[in-house]
Design goal:
Number of strands: 9
Strand order of the largest sheet: 7-6-5-4-8
Distance between the termini: 38 Å
Structural class: alpha+beta
Number of helices: 5
Oligomer: single chain
Bound molecules: zinc ion
Shape: elongated
Helix content: 25-40%
Length: 225
């Protein structure tokens, strides 16, 4: 279910739902004719169509539990898009170039949009890297833990960092900085969807918000000038 979710605030509660009801589900006050103190805020859907996001790292969730347990070692499937949205991903049978199947995933754009030089070479880098000589010089075979889709994507990311004379990212660093925050948001969103589809609302105590919301990490790009 991917309806858009909104959040509004009433009687010190944050109320998540798909549309503003006639009355507050918590205190029962009728809203008819009255305006809410704060306009409802829409909660961005953390999933998008990976084939429409060029030069991105993709995480395809399979089930809730896989997302919840994700720690960089689990068998989540990951890939990298070229500039046309073809998803390069590594499986037991080698590197695949998928034109479909990644329509609902977490997309992490990697390149600042004005890095034209890098973008113009991206497809060539990705294709070259994916040929066995570079990614798999020893003809190692697929291994759940050590030679899997996550290693493939991270190694590609690091190869491109090297072309930019930037230091490599460790698996831990990459996972904690770029992947986990998005996974957490996606997990929360899936929980909201589930609650709303069962109970129409999800109600929680309003956390104290700073007047300025914390800046989103969405804008961080691994490749930036
Ligand atoms: Zn209320």
């Amino acid at each position: 279910m991917d309806k858009s979710i909104i959040r509004f605030n009433h009687c010190d509660k944050d109320i998540f739902c798909c549309f503003v009801p006639d009355e507050c589900p918590e205190c029962g006050v009728r809203f008819s004719g009255k305006r809410l103190e704060e306009a409802p805020v829409s909660i961005p859907n953390p999933f998008s169509n990976g084939h429409k996001v060029p030069c991105a790292f993709l995480v395809a969730p399979t089930e809730d539990s896989v997302l919840r347990d994700f720690d960089g070692h689990s068998d989540l499937h990951t890939g990298v898009t070229n500039t046309n949205g073809v998803v390069y991903n590594y499986t037991r049978t080698g590197v695949h170039r998928d034109h479909q199947g990644w329509e609902r995933c977490i997309c992490i754009p990697l390149v600042q949009p004005d890095m034209f030089n890098l973008i113009s070479q991206w497809d060539e880098y990705l294709e070259k890297f994916s040929s066995a000589q570079m990614w798999d010089p020893l003809w190692q075979s697929f291994h759940e833990e050590t030679h899997n889709c996550y290693n493939y994507t991270l190694m590609f990311i690091n190869c491109v960092l090297a072309t930019q004379s930037k230091p490599a990212l460790s698996k831990k660093e990459f996972t904690h900085t770029f992947v986990l925050p998005r996974i957490r948001r996606a997990t929360k969103y899936m929980m909201l969807c589930r609650e709303i589809s069962q109970n129409h609302f999800y109600i929680m105590n309003s956390p104290r918000r700073n007047s300025q919301e914390a800046p989103s990490e969405e804008d961080d790009r691994i490749y930036s000038t």
